[in-house]
Amino acid sequence: MKKGVFWKFVSVSAAAVLCLSAGLGQTQDAAVKAAPLSAGDFVAGVYGLVSSSGGKLPDWDKVRSCFLKEAIIVLRTNRTATTVFSLEGFIKDFVDFYERPFKRGEATVVPKDSGFTEKVVRMKAWEYGDMAHVLVLYEAKITGFSMPPQQGVDSWLLVRRDGRWIIAAATNEIVTPARPVPPELREEK
Predict the structure, then answer these.
(1) Per-residue confidence at 188, pLDDT binned at 50, 70, 90?
(2) CB–CB of 95/112 below 8 Å?
(3) Structural domain boundaries, residue 120
(4) Dist CA 63 CA 125 (whole Å)
(5) Rounded to two decimals, what is the model's pTM?
(6) What is the total count of domains within the chain?
């Protein structure tokens, strides 16, 4: 069983990055010329890039292009440990996740065949000059798996380079009864 993405899904799922503007289908560079994307908009698009309908895999080159080559990615790899990934290690771990069969009861599901979805539930973004921090509560689900969506919290550190946001670091944590959603990401009443 592969570590990073599996535990990120089981406990929370995986996180990655979208270089397409939030659902508009244009590259971030084209969107910047029209109206600069906020760090929050950039990160909101992240979750769609690694989501995939059955039989269609994410475009890993687009994911790669959203990170600094030297980016640091630290993922929860089980309930008590984290692993530091290089960008290429992160991509490989995600590719392996899509290929791995998951079994629950009698059902076996392979994400590349059935699909995988991540969506933003809530976020808090903070920008200051050419740096930003975005905190995201998200849900992830393997399509066709009889398990409810798993929640997690991602923390993204971004820098602006050549007029566009790019990811410098990412970390994640699982939501558990002992570690509920942080106050910054709770639903306002």
Answers:
(1) confident
(2) no
(3) 4-177
(4) 20
(5) 0.81
(6) 1
